[in-house]
Amino acid sequence: MIDAPLLNISNLVLHFRTRQGPVQAVDQVDFSLQEKHAVVILGESGCGKSSLAKAILRLLPKNVAAYSGRVELMGNDVMAYNDEEFRLNVRWVQMSLVPQAAMNALNPVIRVGQQVAEPLIFHAGMAKKGALEQAARMFKYVGVPEDCLNSYPFELSGGMRQRVAIAMALATSPNLIILDEPTSALDLLTQSNIMNVLKRIKAELGTSYILITHDVSTSSELADDVAVMYAGQIVEMGDAESFFEEPLHPYSKMLMASVPRLHSDADPIFITGQPPSLINPPRGCRFAARCPSCHDQCIKEPPVFQKGWRRVKCWLQR
């Protein structure tokens, strides 16, 4: 018997209002995440990965044109909560975020120790002294020296700022952490150190992750499952081992073929063409214009997930 998923998302939609028309950044997305697992959301820039994180955590800008669907966390439909209930009971309590570019996410005029302590004060009801002591423990856990508690963000390196952001997300012991490009703009050694921290947290604390990235090599270190996103939709999802061994969707195959391989003489390829406009996406498959296997049905009819143990949104997989 398979346990109920920690997170189950159904028909999630997030469209943004613009002068040219609504941008369909997240369009009818479905996926689930088991407890103590990590799902990696792969895709090129502009496919809607970060917008998906905003939709799950309800971090919405003012220009929302449509926002709907079902987000079940531990069996509770948190989309039914009003904004105040969501803020008090879900965000930073059951789900937290490690944002992209920690320097921009951290307040430059507040000491980092206070920033890590803040969720504990407001969501866990801890006194300031106890919250700072817990912040110090979190710093030690993620490898930040305790004397950095009184530092400002600009006094820390990029890797240390990223560790502070992880400590902040971890402070309230959430069930799920969403990581939005956590190693972008970091050198390779720092990336490796950050990934080792994340793997240790997952192994020791049983924390579940949604890792959003376009870096295939980094994602393979942490992933239990992989979801490939293209033009606002999930086009393939399956277990990581099967995916990395043999991706099935044409876009997934080309995405994997674009990555240099240490033990292969084949040159990396690039994906020709451009992603479609999300203001006026094509009627059929959104990858059709770039797909070498496109046929008439792909242009005329939007594909659906084909039946089987691997979920692939492609007519070739019937």
Any descriptors?
318 residues, Rossmann fold, globular, alpha/beta
Commentary on this structure:
The protein is α/β, with parallel strands linked by helices and 318 residues long. Helices cover 32% and strands 21% of the residues. The protein has 2 domains: 232 residues, 3-Layer(aba) Sandwich (Rossmann fold); 63 residues, no CATH class. A 7-stranded mixed beta sheet has the order 6-7-8-3-9-10-11, with helices on both faces. A 4-stranded antiparallel beta sheet has the order 2-1-4-5, covered by helices on one side. It is globular. The two termini are 27 Å apart.
Q: Which term fits the overall shape? A: globular
Do you know the CATH architecture of the largest domain? 3-Layer(aba) Sandwich
Report mean pLDDT, rounded to a whole number. Answer: 90
Give the CATH level 1 class of the largest domain. Answer: Alpha Beta
Question: What's the helix count?
Answer: 11
- Helix/sheet category: alpha/beta
Biggest sheet strand order reads 6-7-8-3-9-10-11
| CATH topology annotation of the largest domain | Rossmann fold
Poorly predicted runs are none
Radius of gyration (Å): 20 Å
* Structural domains: how many: 2
Share in helix: 25-40%
Summarize this, please?
The chain contains eleven helices and eleven strands. It has helices at residues 49-57, 83-89, 102-105, 112-123, 128-142, 158-170, 188-205, 216-219, 240-245, 250-257, 296-300; strands spanning 7-16, 23-33, 38-42, 64-73, 76-77, 95-98, 176-180, 208-213, 225-230, 233-239, 311-312.
